[in-house]
Structure formats: structure tokens, C-alpha cells
Write a structure and sequence with these properties.
45% strand, five-stranded antiparallel beta sheet, 8 strands
């Protein structure tokens, strides 16, 4: 069964040239998420119903803007891509979140 695309993806820079991505699980069966920049796989994150859906990726080149997208997987079956999210790597960025977004899903 094909999982639904993750929604509401956001990216922000962290210290040490990393990025944190957040997204919302859209339902359906999911075993893992994969974070990409273009066709390059950056990270695989195991699905957990109890955990927030967050992935980190590093090291990235300071000052370079990266556009990420997240796919949900059910075994070898991929979802459509999440919305693209963009942030610029900054080795001196604060470690806390800079923005808060809320979504109501009916």
C-alpha cells in the first residue's frame, strides 16, 4: 500500500552545519521516512507513532541553501514527495527553533 505524502515540512539550520526537518505524518501505513536534497538521500528515519516526526542531517556546507523533501515508505513503496522546504546552512546558527507553525487537519 502506498503511504500518503508527509505534509507541512519545515527546515531550519542548527549549529555545526546541520539542519533539522519537521513534518506531519499524513496517515496510512508507514515504516520509515527518507530525507532528500534533489536525488541525494541524506537520512533515513524510522517511523514511530509515539515520536514527533523529525530528522536531522549534517554536515552541510556553510552558506549554501538546501532544498529538502521527505518521502514516507511502506517497505519499498514510496509516497509522493512532501512539499519542498528550504534553509541555508549556518555553522553559527542557534540550536533552538526559530519558528513555530501549527496546522489543523480535519
Amino acid at each position: 500500500v502506498q503511504p500518503l505524502a508527509p505534509i507541512g515540512a519545515l527546515a531550519y539550520a542548527t549549529a555545526n552545519g546541520g539542519m533539522v526537518l519537521n513534518w506531519i505524518h499524513a496517515g496510512a501505513v508507514t515504516s520509515a521516512y527518507k530525507i532528500y536534497t534533489g536525488a541525494t538521500l541524506r537520512k533515513t528515519v524510522a517511523y514511530s507513532a509515539a515520536a514527533p516526526h523529525v530528522g536531522t542531517t549534517a554536515p552541510l556546507t556553510d552558506g549554501v541553501q538546501y532544498t529538502f523533501h521527505v518521502l514516507a515508505f511502506n517497505g519499498g513503496v514510496a509516497s509522493p514527495s512532501s512539499n519542498p522546504c528550504t534553509a541555508t546552512a549556518d555553522a553559527t546558527a542557534p540550536t533552538g527553533a526559530r519558528a513555530l507553525t501549527a496546522m489543523l487537519i480535519h
